[in-house]
């Protein structure tokens, strides 16, 4: 039974012996190595090419490696080592990874080895554990691999310590500069900015020489680093620390050193604290470690009295669980007098753990955030007041080559044992969580935890505000999940009932956004709110979500009033997920995926051009403007008068709204499309959003069919987009005479008259404008029914004459062009989405706006969005899952290197 227990009997049936080792027969064994996809920084590997080569030579095992361009070891190096590079791992007996495997990628009846983060009953991974059991998977967790002395054997901890300490020194240098002190630490980079660990160590030693020579500013001294924990994390951090001129002191010496001011300015001080240094028995008894581990409730923390007041920087590397006392609570930190604490590097990254105010994981992209204890607020701005906190949860990825070698050396003997048939290895047995989909005896307790989490996930409530054209695809997507109940709240009960269509788990309610009490009541009943009402009303919804502490998803741009809610949303522990539609939305996803891929290869973006347009399908573009509306035309008309700003070949151009359409040009994407385009608002803000400040060209534009810009600019010239009042009962030809200040005779020769007003237009362009005016019946006895304005009257007639007819369909086209420098060569890449609507069904626009928003809601409800505050999908943890799911929904992007 023990022989079968590691891999599971399903994987051993039918395998034939194929080679001999130590006079015993063993089957051919196949190892699979996964492509890591949890975030863009993950480039580690469980086995490096040298391990693979050794494994194949010693065991005759087969190795399949999924191709990956981000892995620190290139695909070619694995091929040279004897492995097969293939995306299909279905033939592997054991599949190795580093981080968690996305649920949808788990293969049935396999043995997986990775850091699963499930053995503590972590709620966010209980759905994954449930799927592992349903798919009859055997799960072996690296974190549980321990030797006979109960010490972990396979881990990245020491490299987390290295990277965490390097980052902490970098952050401290930056923080001290904000405080007004320039120190040698300013020369320190983040861990991933060094080509190797040795380079980083050399730099630190050089900084140490500067400290010896120039000293730490007197006002900062003594600069004291306090280390918690005694495991590999703390060991790695201390090894980096010791590269600087230093002196170790005892915890009992902290107070005396600070108060005596008898310290050496040319060194920094280190202090290692153990549990007995900051814990006190509630009954005054002596500290007893065994008692503490068994009955931690008998102890309380006095860290805030004995350690924190004298610390400059805390490097946290302890293992912590909720049953243990916190080192520092929010209130204890707030009550500290004369606090010297500048920075906390929480390498262990226990959220709301030993340091209660450490409420989130930071990222490699944004490694630091700041906590103001007086106001209990958080900020990501380095100029903010308060404590600097670093809590990156994937630190070893910043030192991928060395971390992979170290990890693989520890893992290799265990993989070799599996390959030669020694499946009774006690380390592997002890690290097994599930066997053939069943929890092993030592982990049976996880069943109750999993049931509780999964039960809490049932019947999640989603409040959808608005029943417009986007609502249908969004609700259809979410309604597939029987665990979701949808409340559709709309000011149009007819529209809402049509969408609900008597389907179960959809409740229709009336919406009045201006009724704050009713809005708050509806928001309070939901787990996630989706706002599909006009963008100008989103602030009311966001404020209600803040008050009720509910997550919010919208497809619209982040307005300044919404952006100002970021810190409040973080403090409320909610996410306001914006710009997750088409444009903005899918444009972010595809742009950032390619930009990060290019940058990960060492490329430098030199030009980024993006075009997007929602249009009739070519066969339905049968009017003079080549355009049709599935909703109110007014927003489209007004957008055609927006000013724009962009950068082209290093020069910034600003286009006033009056000249926007005149700046249009022909755009070639596919030969079958006769496109033109013009600039779309402020493109320059995307330099920072996309991290492409080095680009010489940054341009975003709007696509239309050829001729649209000429006609629309003509209508604008003639005053047809003005908000001038018009009386009901007026004939359109009279309105036109009023605008043109002309008579009936002039209207009879409209082309000639317009040419006098706009002599810069050529004859063909003039004819197109006149044809459009006649087609729209603006030079006719068509009666304007109600009191209105010129632009609104134009919108009414356009909606009548330019709406989609039965059986027609629309089209969406999104096209990015990247030019980047890679290995001294200029490379061009395109990323293109063309999507068509379904005749008499959902439009392409509705699908490409509603589906990404629905996926974002689903991710939030499944705890796949860990960020808080106001966010947009520009990071891998957000854009990659959405792109993957969009592909499953038939919304695919075509990418080409030209």
TrEMBL record:
State the Gene3D superfamilies in the record. Answer: Dihydrodipicolinate Reductase, domain 2 (3.30.360.10), Domain 3, Saccharopine reductase (1.10.1870.10), NAD(P)-binding Rossmann-like Domain (3.40.50.720)
Listed GO CC annotations: cytoplasm
Pfam families (UniProt xref): AlaDh_PNT_N, Sacchrp_dh_C, Sacchrp_dh_NADP
- Which InterPro entries does the entry link to? AASS (IPR051168), AlaDH/PNT_N (IPR007886), AlaDH/PNT_NAD(H)-bd (IPR007698), NAD(P)-bd_dom_sf (IPR036291), Sacchrp_dh-like_C (IPR032095), Sacchrp_dh_NADP-bd (IPR005097)
- Look up the record and name the pathway of this protein: Amino-acid degradation; L-lysine degradation via saccharopine pathway; glutaryl-CoA from L-lysine: step 1/6; Amino-acid degradation; L-lysine degradation via saccharopine pathway; glutaryl-CoA from L-lysine: step 2/6
Q: What is this protein called?
A: Alanine dehydrogenase/PNT, NAD(H)-binding domain-containing protein
What is the scientific name of the source organism? Rozella allomycis (strain CSF55)
One of the protein's GO biological processes? lysine biosynthetic process via aminoadipic acid
Family to which this protein belongs: In the C-terminal section; belongs to the saccharopine dehydrogenase family.
Q: Where is the Alanine dehydrogenase/pyridine nucleotide transhydrogenase N-terminal domain?
A: 32-163
> What is the superkingdom listed in this entry's lineage?
Eukaryota
Keywords assigned by UniProt, alphabetized:
Amino-acid biosynthesis, Lysine biosynthesis, Multifunctional enzyme, NADP, Oxidoreductase
Q: Which residues form the Alanine dehydrogenase/pyridine nucleotide transhydrogenase NAD(H)-binding domain?
A: 210-391
GO MF annotations for this entry?
saccharopine dehydrogenase activity
Q: Does the keyword Amino-acid biosynthesis apply?
A: yes
């Amino acid at each position: 039974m023990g022989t079968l227990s590691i891999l599971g009997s399903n994987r051993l049936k039918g395998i034939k012996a194929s080679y001999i080792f130590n006079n015993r027969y063993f089957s051919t064994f196949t190892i699979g190595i996964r492509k890591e996809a949890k975030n863009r920084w993950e480039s580690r590997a469980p086995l490096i090419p040298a391990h693979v080569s050794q494994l194949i030579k010693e065991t005759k095992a087969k190795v399949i490696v999924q191709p990956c361009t981000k892995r620190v070891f290139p695909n070619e190096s694995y091929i040279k080592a004897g492995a097969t590079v293939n995306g299909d791992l279905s033939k592997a007996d054991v599949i190795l990874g580093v981080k968690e495997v996305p649920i949808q990628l788990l293969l049935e009846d396999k043995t997986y080895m990775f850091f699963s983060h499930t053995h503590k009953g972590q709620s966010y991974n209980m759905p994954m554990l449930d799927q592992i059991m349903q798919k009859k998977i055997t799960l072996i967790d690296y974190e549980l691999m321990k030797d006979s002395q109960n010490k972990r054997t396979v881990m990245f901890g020491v490299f987390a310590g290295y990277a965490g300490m390097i980052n902490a020194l970098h952050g401290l240098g930056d923080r001290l500069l904000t405080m007004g002190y320039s120190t040698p630490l300013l020369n320190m980079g983040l861990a991933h900015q060094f080509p190797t660990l040795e380079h980083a160590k050399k730099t630190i030693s050089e900084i140490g020489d500067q400290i010896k020579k120039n000293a730490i500013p007197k006002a900062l001294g003594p600069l004291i680093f306090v280390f918690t924990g005694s495991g590999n994390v703390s060991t790695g951090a201390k090894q980096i620390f010791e590269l600087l001129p230093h002196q170790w002191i005892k915890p009992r010496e902290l107070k005396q050193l600070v108060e005596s001011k008898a310290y050496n300015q040319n060194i920094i001080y280190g202090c290692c604290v153990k549990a007995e240094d900051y814990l006190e028995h509630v009954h005054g008894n002596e500290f007893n470690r065994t008692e503490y581990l068994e009955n931690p409730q008998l102890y309380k923390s006095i860290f805030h009295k004995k350690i924190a007041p004298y610390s400059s920087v805390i490097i946290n590397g302890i293992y912590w669980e909720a049953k243990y006392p916190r080192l520092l609570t929010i209130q204890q930190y707030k009550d500290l007098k004369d606090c010297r604490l500048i920075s906390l590097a929480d390498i262990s990254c226990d959220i709301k753990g030993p340091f209660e105010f450490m409420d989130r994981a930071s990222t490699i992209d944004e490694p630091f955030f700041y906590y103001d204890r007086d106001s209990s607020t958080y900020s990501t701005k380095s100029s903010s007041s308060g404590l600097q906190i670093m809590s990156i949860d994937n630190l070893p990825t910043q030192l991928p080559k060395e971390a992979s070698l170290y990890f693989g050396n520890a893992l290799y003997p265990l993989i070799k044992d599996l390959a030669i048939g020694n499946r009774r290895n006690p380390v592997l047995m002890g690290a097994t969580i599930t066997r053939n989909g069943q929890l092993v005896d030592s982990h049976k307790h996880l069943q109750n935890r999993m049931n509780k989490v999964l039960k809490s996930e049932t019947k999640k409530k989603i409040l959808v505000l608005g029943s417009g054209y986007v609502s249908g695809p969004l609700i259809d997507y979410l309604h597939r999940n029987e665990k979701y109940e949808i409340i559709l709240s709309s000011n149009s009960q007819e529209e809402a009932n049509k969408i609900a269509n008597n389907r179960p788990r959809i409740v229709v309610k009336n919406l009045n956004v201006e009724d704050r009490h009713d809005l708050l009541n509806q928001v309070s009943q939901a787990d996630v709110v989706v706002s599909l009402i006009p963008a100008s009303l989103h602030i009311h919804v966001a404020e209600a979500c803040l008050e009720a502490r509910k997550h919010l998803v919208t497809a619209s741009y982040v307005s300044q009033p919404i952006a100002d809610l970021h810190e409040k949303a973080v403090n409320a522990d909610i996410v306001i997920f914006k710009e997750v539609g088409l444009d903005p939305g899918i444009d972010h996803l595809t742009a950032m995926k390619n930009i990060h891929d290019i940058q990960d290869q060492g490329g430098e973006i030199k030009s980024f051009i993006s075009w997007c347009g929602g249009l009739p399908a070519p066969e339905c573009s049968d009017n003079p403007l080549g355009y049709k509306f599935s909703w109110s035309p007014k927003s489209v008309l007004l957008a055609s008068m927006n000013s724009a700003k962009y950068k082209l070949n290093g020069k910034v151009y600003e286009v006033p709204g009056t000249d926007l359409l005149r700046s249009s040009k022909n755009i070639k994407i596919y030969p079958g499309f006769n496109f033109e385009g013009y600039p779309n608002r402020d493109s320059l803000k995307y330099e920072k959003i996309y991290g492409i400040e080095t680009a010489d060209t940054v341009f975003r534009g709007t696509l239309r069919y050829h001729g649209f810009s000429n006609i629309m600019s003509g209508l604008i010239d003639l005053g047809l987009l003005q908000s001038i009042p018009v009386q009901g009962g007026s004939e359109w030809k009279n309105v036109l005479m009023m605008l043109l200040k002309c008579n009936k005779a002039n209207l009879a020769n409209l082309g000639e008259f317009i040419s006098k007003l706009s002599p810069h237009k050529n004859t063909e362009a003039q004819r197109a404008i006149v044809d459009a005016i006649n087609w729209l019946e603006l030079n006719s006895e068509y009666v304007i029914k109600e009191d209105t304005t010129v632009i609104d009257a134009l919108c009414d007639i356009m909606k009548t004459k330019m709406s989609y007819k039965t059986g027609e369909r629309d089209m969406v086209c999104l096209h990015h062009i990247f030019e980047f420098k890679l290995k001294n060569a200029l490379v061009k890449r395109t990323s293109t989405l063309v999507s068509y609507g379904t005749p008499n069904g959902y439009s392409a626009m509705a699908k490409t706006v509603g589906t990404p928003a629905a996926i974002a809601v689903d991710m939030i409800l499944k705890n796949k969005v860990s960020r808080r505050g106001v966010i947009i999908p520009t990071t891998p943890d957000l854009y990659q899952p959405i792109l993957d799911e969009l592909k499953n929904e038939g919304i695919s992007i075509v990418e080409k290197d030209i």
